[in-house]
Amino acid sequence: PRLPGLMAAATTRPLDGRVAVVTGGTRGIGRAVALRLARDGAHCVLTYRRSAGLAAEVVAQLQLEGVKGLALPLELARPSDVPAVVERVGEAFGRVDILVANAAATSFRPLMEQKEHNIRRTFAISVDSFIAAVQAALPLMRGRPGRIVAISGIDSFQAMPEHGLLGGAKAAVESLVRSLALELGPEGITVNGVNPGMIITDSSRLYIEQGLGRNYEATMAALAAKTPVRRSGTTEDVADCVAWIVSDGAGFLTGQTILLDGGLTIVSPLARLEGGA
Hints:
By secondary structure, the protein is an alpha/beta fold. The protein has helices at residues 4-11, 28-39, 52-63, 82-93, 116-141, 164-184, 202-211, 216-226, 235-245; strands at residues 19-23, 43-48, 69-73, 98-101, 147-151, 190-196, 257-260. The chain has a 7-stranded parallel sheet with strand order 3-2-1-4-5-6-7, sandwiched between helices. Helix 2 packs across helix 9. The longest helix is centred in the middle third of the chain and has 26 residues, at 116-141. Residues 1-10 have low confidence and may be disordered.
């Protein structure tokens, strides 16, 4: 028979008892991240903008993992709303160990056609509210190895049609990751980013079909054929990367944005041409 101590060690999950906050956690990458952290034992708080029903469904899935789930409405376009929501997390759990800034939104059109309110809203959601969330969460993180992760995107460093505005906001987020890592490192808190490539999501489908007017399945298959690992990325790939970043084993990693694209961006332009090797 196994010794009791060995049995306990075998069943302990790496994030047991920790509290994670995931913005935009009801669908796509945010949902996958929340479910992955829950499987590792973290209680998860999701923020959402509109669909309370969908948020309740994800909370139910989280609870099936034996953790507590909580969904809170939050309009990230109003950064001043962020502190009150984080305060509610403190009231419910008394701590925040992990903050994942995932939510983003924009109007996909050329920069020359962007209206002032679209510009302000895009940056308010991705940039202003990110800073507000970190500021509000810091008192609840102090005294423990906190982890902050920002989800970026390849439009932060690659020019993409109709993605210029969001790309600018995401580039700003990656710069904030470096500065926040410098400021918060002495507090025992790491700050990193994940920059997913073309991931299979509703958002990538919307962009390819409506933004570019291309067939989604054919486009993703063509990209996969040019990707060194010969497949498309999934939300679970992103979630696995985040799960490592927030683990104890990643305590020496900070100020970095990990490019998670299966190696597509290392492929030379010539090799990306039709029929290229």
